[in-house]
Design goal:
By secondary structure, the protein is α+β, with helices and mostly antiparallel strands. It has two domains: about 80 residues, no CATH class; about 30 residues, no CATH class. Helices cover about 25% and strands about 35% of the residues. The strands form two sheets. Strands 4-1-2-3-8 form a five-stranded antiparallel β-sheet, with no helix packed on it. Helix 2 runs antiparallel to helix 3. The protein is elongated, with a radius of gyration of 24 Å. The mean pLDDT is about 80.
Length: about 140
């Protein structure tokens, strides 16, 4: 796995969920990060892990693979069906979504059209407005 940024503190957000799921969550300045381990079979982990990084070990003979979790608190060997590292970076998508944002006039028009939906023919007006707005 890729090296993790330093000084990230992960806390156990969920333990023993569906399928023995273990979720380690971390919130940082650039976004949140989660490590989701499905079918966790290993030692009891401390409540907080600093600078956690996971590496794959040997593939097991059963349906579980072997993994090692490194942190400042120690190294932990465990078995799991799957390990997913999820990086949430909302700032990455913000410029892409900006062009679809409604202007102030469009917001007013939507409020009026939604109010007019209660009237007969309101749905037709809303469809016409949307067709006019779409490229």
């Amino acid at each position: 796995m890729a090296p993790r940024p330093t000084n990230r503190t992960y806390e156990i957000a969920e333990r023993g969920g569906p399928g023995g799921r273990l979720v380690l969550a971390c919130a940082g300045q650039g976004g949140a990060c989660k490590i989701v381990i499905s079918g966790y079979d290993g030692p009891q982990l401390p409540g907080r892990l600093t600078d956690a990084a996971i590496e794959a070990r040997a593939t097991g003979t059963s349906t579980r693979d072997r993994w090692r979790l490194h942190s400042r608190e120690g190294s932990f060997d465990f078995g799991a069906r799957a390990v997913d590292v999820i990086e949430e970076r909302p700032a990455l998508y913000e410029p892409m979504h900006r062009r679809f944002a409604l202007s102030g006039m469009d917001r007013v028009a939507v409020r009026v059209l939604l109010w007019m939906l209660r009237l007969p023919g309101g749905a037709r007006l809303l469809r016409r407005w949307h067709a006019h707005r779409s490229p």
